[in-house]
Amino acid sequence: MLITKEEIIQFIEYIENYDTIIIHRHVRPDPDAVGSQLGLKVLLESAFPNKRILAAGTITEGLSWMGRMDEVKSEDYEEALVIVTDTANQDRIDGKQYDQGQKLIKIDHHLIVDAYGDLQMAYPEATSASQLITEIALQSEGHIPLTVEASKLLYAGIVADTGRFLYNPTPETFEMAMHLVTYPIDTRKITDQFSEKSVEEARFEGYAYQNIQFYDEGVASLVITRDIMRQYGITEEATNIVLTIPSNVTGMYTWVNFIEQEGDNPKYRVRLRSKGPAINGIAEAHDGGGHAMASGAKADSEEEMNEIINELKQITQEYRQTNK
Question: Which CATH code is given to the segment(s) 5-195?
């Protein structure tokens, strides 16, 4: 277990002291953000039926199968406890009134770049925020017991953030998943949610296979423009389906997708991935951050995109020389 007993006790005390609890997570949510947020909401609703538990933020249609957000008003924060899951820095919190509550708790698994909150349970060793929420439930000594619905959401978050247990799962990851699957949840159905694709997405995937650039250094890159998204009838969210393609290509160690944004600030959203070299330093140098093997950044020009590719080439070459 990663979270200390003292933190669990303090967390439960906060929960017990407030009648209204509002849960936030980051903008442009992924399944772990939604899974940890709604999983925690379901847990608290079950354990404390007389409390008002609200989930704040927006959600994409692609994740609507996990649940819906609540309508949260300004006055709801006046005597509320606010919890933020899966969000490293305050700038990325979905819903800017998160700091209007009486107390603030942070539950996160990213590298600590912004220390905020009256209670911080931030553990970069965890592979997902959903893993940490599961751990809170298991260590609560019955105060916040797991439920079937919560287990489904938390398992989905863990599966998604580990790429179906392919990317750096730890013994704690498998331990938490083991506890979740003791409940009657349909693990196959959950996994299928991340592998099924529409006809439009399948055709776009074919485009990606044809247009990914592979470099001798062991780096791959793909540029996805707004015109390409319109041509194939897909959303920016759907471009995620091609992110892991280079991981299956022999000799590729790092890769990057550049997704053109509406407007010019920034011009491109950058998704960085690796199966060896640490890439979070490159992300931080380009107005981003994240994990050693999975990070995000921004690029304002084609020149900056080329800089990122060259930086990936350099760290990949160094990694290959060190790990012959």
Answer: 3.90.1640.10
